[in-house]
């Protein structure tokens, strides 16, 4: 299975503490209209950590239904519990997702052998394409390229990695270890363009929640060898990328969606709290300068 271009790690709108299905469907439709290449419900940006399993299944189903096969849907389905990851992956498959985003088990800090057995166990119960998610800043574990190769060799379902270390040397080694046909996706908006240059094929992005066209166009420009346009778009997004991490993701991006009028307001579930008041003018200023407002 091939992944190519910009995939949005979708933010999940809430209303009165519950999933706002109408706003979510409208948001997905806007993303597709703006030219996004794929959608990723129930990732970190989608606040999957505070969704119940029932809610997670519903969010994925809504996304698949609304996408109507026009773009790929890569559903967040990982867990630090292998048994739980199997159940979530089955839910993603039943909903019709094209692939499952599988985070490396957080907190447990398994050995390389444990990682292999974790993904083998999921694939044995639910066979579908896997995108392995390497984000050591949240999991406490860095999936090194040699260990990723062990997983790829043992689990044929492993077709891609979302590499969120921001380490271009490590990203380049993924291609060296796993081959040029392996799907290397950026999970770090700051380094998308250079990651494409070392063999990457796209990005699972935070900033494309609010700038889907710019991120998609940048990837397309690079693939079309229009490197000047790609660089111009990368530079345009750079200050917005920084703003999206002025506080813990997804606080700034969901606040931005509210400011833009795409979400009615920016509701979060504890322990995530709203953007600090002193940061709101800074965020609005960045959005205005970028032409988003």
Automatic annotation (TrEMBL):
Ordered alphabetically, the record's keywords are: Amino-acid biosynthesis, Cytoplasm, Diaminopimelate biosynthesis, Lyase, Lysine biosynthesis, Membrane, Schiff base, Transmembrane, Transmembrane helix
- Which family does the record claim for this protein? Belongs to the DapA family.
| Pfam families to which the protein is assigned, alphabetical | DHDPS
Q: Where is this site: Part of a proton relay during catalysis?
A: 44, 107
Assembly state and interactors? Answer: Homotetramer; dimer of dimers.
Q: Where are the transmembrane segments?
A: 190-211
Q: In which pathway does it act?
A: Amino-acid biosynthesis; L-lysine biosynthesis via DAP pathway; (S)-tetrahydrodipicolinate from L-aspartate: step 3/4
Which reaction does this chain catalyze? L-aspartate 4-semialdehyde + pyruvate = (2S,4S)-4-hydroxy-2,3,4,5-tetrahydrodipicolinate + H2O + H(+)
InterPro entries for the chain: Aldolase_TIM, DapA, DapA-like, Schiff_base-form_aldolases_CS
Q: What is its EC number?
A: 4.3.3.7
Protein's name in the database: 4-hydroxy-tetrahydrodipicolinate synthase
Function recorded in the entry: Catalyzes the condensation of (S)-aspartate-beta-semialdehyde [(S)-ASA] and pyruvate to 4-hydroxy-tetrahydrodipicolinate (HTPA).
Give the active-site positions.
133 (proton donor/acceptor), 162 (schiff-base intermediate with substrate)
Q: Where in the cell is it found?
A: Cytoplasm
Q: Keyword Nucleotidyltransferase on this protein?
A: no
Q: Which organism is it from?
A: Pseudodesulfovibrio nedwellii
Q: Which residues bind pyruvate?
A: 45, 204
Where is it chiefly localized?
cytoplasm
